[in-house]
Amino acid sequence: MAAPLLSVAFAAPANAAPEDVTLSVDVRGNFVEVAISNNSRDLISCDWQVVTDDGRTPGSTITGYILPDEEYRIQRYLNEGNYVTSWGCMSWDSPEVWGTEEFLHDDKTAEPIRFTTPVGPFGSIDLEAVLGNLDSVSIDLEGEGFLGTFGSGSLEGVLGFS
Question: Which residues form the signal peptide (predicted)?
């Protein structure tokens, strides 16, 4: 009699509580912060992605491991546009999963998060491409621009300039 009960217990699907693992998006202009909170008892690993309306993926990330009662945060700069964030997390200690349909299909615990970023102070340039290639950027510290007028001494003591 005990054997049938054990097989039924192991065959039962895991019921992940949606509030145990959540992803949130905080948009401040063109800077977007993604936070994944692990309120479960389990060690989890997560994948998430940001997709534009035209299907481009400007930011996908694998977070690695998130300990119980810990939070993972990352901030990115995104060009102007409409975006959708989808995600999925899985427990390393149990068969529980959390996230959106794009990652989990029928086991989803959340809806994708939609957000819009405005035209930034740099226009529609690809800031990641520029910052990733700093040796090709020149800055005129003596001229005037949208930040005002700079003199050669105005950065003294800041960011190592002297």
Answer: 1-16
Count of beta carbons in the 10 Å neighbourhood of residue 31: 13
d(CA 149, CA 50): 37
pLDDT for residue 93 is more than 60 = yes
Which among 36, 54, 33, 57 is positioned nearest to 45, based on CA atoms?
Answer: 36
Helix ranges (H only) for the chain are 2-11, 101-104, 127-131
Burial 104-143 (b: 16+ CB within 10 A, else e): beebbbbebbeeebeebeeeeeebeeeeeeeeeeeeeeee
0.90 cut: is pTM over it? no
For residue 49, the enclosing domain spans 14-117
